[in-house]
């Protein structure tokens, strides 16, 4: 599918509105350039949905989430950052394993199967990309997805006001 990145994200964020309002979380769509990528809409949506869901879920009411992207040569990146609870250093690799959830009093209060990021990682691998995490407990987390940039050569960088 041909995906216009910024417009696409705006649309995905619409579907999160009820959740965001309920928890008073602000999401900043910082994708400035609406470049077009050719990608698997189903897989990409799953990735974006899960990263957003986690950024909202593992965050206090009133928290913030930032989504940005950039493109360098043959790679484009999607970055989802939050100022939520963070992930201890020694568990940052394990969160991508099936059924792995962080053990603490807070995560016990939140539901989840621990499958989200395992499937995210699988899908990204299927798209020949990578995912990495940077996080600090009490500060927040940043997930960076890097994917090969496939375009159809047509430029339509329609800029919208941020
Ligand atoms: P599911 O996604 O199936 O509902 P889940 O959210 O527990 O369940 P994952 O999405 O795989 O599973 O995440 C694994 C664990 O990593 C989570 O339980 C949570 O402890 C931690 N985690 C994931 N994203 C974040 C984040 N943005 N901030 C803090 N912790 C996170
Ligand atoms: Mg999850």
Question: How does the SSE layout of this entry go?
Answer:
Layout: E1 2-4, H1 5-23, E2 26-29, E3 36-38, H2 41-57, E4 64-72, E5 75-82, H3 105-109, H4 116-126, E6 130-136, E7 140-148
Parallel strand pairs: 2-4
Antiparallel strand pairs: 1-3, 4-5, 5-7, 6-7
Protein name: histidine kinase
Subcellular location: Membrane
Organism: Liquorilactobacillus ghanensis DSM 18630
Main β-sheet description: 5 strands, mixed
Unreliable spans: 158-162
Distance between the termini: 25 Å
Number of separate helices: 4
Protein name: histidine kinase
Subcellular location: Membrane
GO cellular component, one term: plasma membrane
Keywords: Kinase, Membrane, Phosphoprotein, Transferase, Transmembrane, Transmembrane helix, Two-component regulatory system
Q: What do these coordinates show?
A:
Residues 1-151 form the Histidine kinase domain. It comes from Liquorilactobacillus ghanensis DSM 18630. This is histidine kinase. It is found in: Membrane. This protein has 162 residues and is an alpha+beta fold. 32% of the residues lie in helices and 27% in strands. It has a 5-stranded mixed β-sheet. A hairpin with a 3-residue loop joins β6 and β7 (140-148). The longest helix has 19 residues, at 5-23. The two termini are 25 Å apart. Mean pLDDT is 90; it is low at 158-162. Bound molecules: adenosine-5'-triphosphate and magnesium ion. Adenosine-5'-triphosphate binds at residues 50, 54-55, 58, 82, 84-87, 95, 100-102, 107, 112-118, 141.
């Amino acid at each position: 599918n041909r995906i216009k990145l910024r417009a696409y994200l705006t649309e995905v964020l619409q579907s999160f509105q009820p959740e965001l309002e309920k928890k008073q979380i602000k999401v900043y769509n910082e994708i400035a350039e609406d470049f077009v990528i050719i990608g698997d809409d189903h897989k990409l949506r799953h990735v974006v949905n899960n990263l957003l869901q986690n950024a909202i879920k593992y965050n206090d009411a009133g928290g913030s989430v930032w989504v940005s992207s950039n493109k360098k040569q043959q790679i484009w990146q999607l970055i989802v950052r939050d100022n939520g609870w963070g992930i201890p250093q020694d568990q940052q690799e394990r969160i991508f394993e099936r059924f792995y959830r962080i053990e603490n009093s807070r995560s016990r209060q939140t539901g989840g199967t621990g499958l989200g990021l395992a499937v995210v990682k699988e899908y990204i691998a299927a798209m020949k990309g990578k995912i990495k995490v940077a996080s600090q407990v009490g500060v927040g987390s940043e997930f960076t997805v890097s994917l090969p940039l496939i375009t159809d050569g047509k430029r339509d960088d329609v800029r919208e006001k941020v």
